[in-house]
Amino acid sequence: MSSEVKGAWFVAARAWLESRSSLEATARVLAADVRRALVEPIPTGWYPEAFLQEAMAAVRTVVAPEPAQFVDAMDACTEIGTSRFFRALLRVASPGFVLQQVPTMWRLIRRGDARIVVKTDVGSARLVYSGFPYFNDENYCLLTEGALRAVVRTCTGRNPKVTLLRSTASSLEVDVRWVKR
Q1: Nearest of 144, 133, 139, 143 to residue 168 by alpha carbon
Q2: Which of 66, 93, 172, 178 would bridge 160 by S-S if both were Cys, CB 3.0 to 4.6 A apart?
């Protein structure tokens, strides 16, 4: 099955770009169908993964060219995309518990054959993503780093240390370490 991404991602990206007065400039560099997905996203709609790939490349080119800037952008988009209700739940859950839910969260925002295995320990977790043929694009690795950072920070009140250990064209291994409140 080819991969698809939920329109909610584009809603969050649009909001972030609007907050930086960068939506128009970013939209200008996109193909018409991807531009429409970014500018007029359907939150519950499904879009080809290639749309997200092109949108992230545009964000990287226009707004956040450096890797650290792009991680910050993906962190902010994740925070925007996380509802108030879900953020409230994250604040009372442990980071380990929340990271164990990443495979479920992935299935809510993506369709495809990807698999995620999560192993937690005291103060850390290892996530292994496989079967997702987009990790050869650096932006996907950085997106993962930013998203995991945002989710764990909501639990702990502090940025965790997210380390991308290994990646191939279709897999990524990530170590996440956090400090308790």
Answers
A1: 133
A2: 178
99 in a structural domain = yes
Same domain, 172 and 99: yes
List, in order, residues 6 or more apart from 71 with CB less than 8 Å away.
142, 145, 146, 149
Q: Is the pTM of this model over 0.90?
A: yes
Residue 26: count of CB within 10 angstroms of its CB: 22
- Note the pLDDT tens digit of each residue in 145-166: 999 999 999 888 899 999 999 9
Quick one: 115 and 172 in the same domain?
A: yes
Between CA 168 and CA 158 the distance in angstroms is 29
Q: Which two tokens stand for residue 7?
A: 């329109």
Determine the Cα–Cα distance for residues 40 and 33; give it in Å rounded to an integer. Answer: 10
Query: Domain residues for 120?
Result: 94-177
Strand partners, 143: none
Q: Which residues contact 44 (CB under 8 A, 6 or more apart)?
A: 6, 7, 8
- Could you tell me if residue 160 is inside a domain? yes
Residue 164 lies in a domain: yes
- Tokens at residue 140, please? 């996907």
Displacement of CA 178 from its chain's centroid (Å): 18
17-42 pLDDT tens trace: 999 999 999 999 999 999 999 999 99
